[in-house]
Amino acid sequence: MLRIRFRRMGLKRQPTYRIVVTDQRNSRDGGFLEIIGYHNPRTRPGIDVVDEGRVLYWLSVGGQASEAVKGLLKRTGSWARYERLMKGETLESLIAEAEVAKANATPVSPRTSYPAPAAGQGRKALAAAAAAKEE
User: Fold this and answer.
1) pLDDT digits (tens, 9 = 90+) for 17-30
2) How far is CA 101 from CA 7, 11, 96, 98, in A?
3) Domains of the chain, first to last
4) What is the mean pLDDT of residues 43-48?
């Protein structure tokens, strides 16, 4: 069975996620069939980019979204379009609607909410600096 889910990317404590289509038996970061988007939770607001046409295609041929991806699809409006596809609307009209919605969306300038730790700013270095100040 096909599953649409997150694949973790990025560095330690700095995750970004790709939205991939994979067999449900594969591991979280294992093989996949296609990358259909990405999600960056480290910015405010989070960046969610989804290829609407491919999401609708994979859902229509039996793919199942994981709970986390389903929540993301609901936030972006893709899940509502999928439900309308299941009720009989054409795929082409829904993809065109998604492109119009994407073009009309107000651009958001995200800022990183969690800066990457610089060299010498780890817990041990900060603890050593605090101990040096106390002496």
Assistant:
1) 999 999 989 888 88
2) 26, 33, 9, 5
3) 2-134 (3.30.1320.10)
4) 82
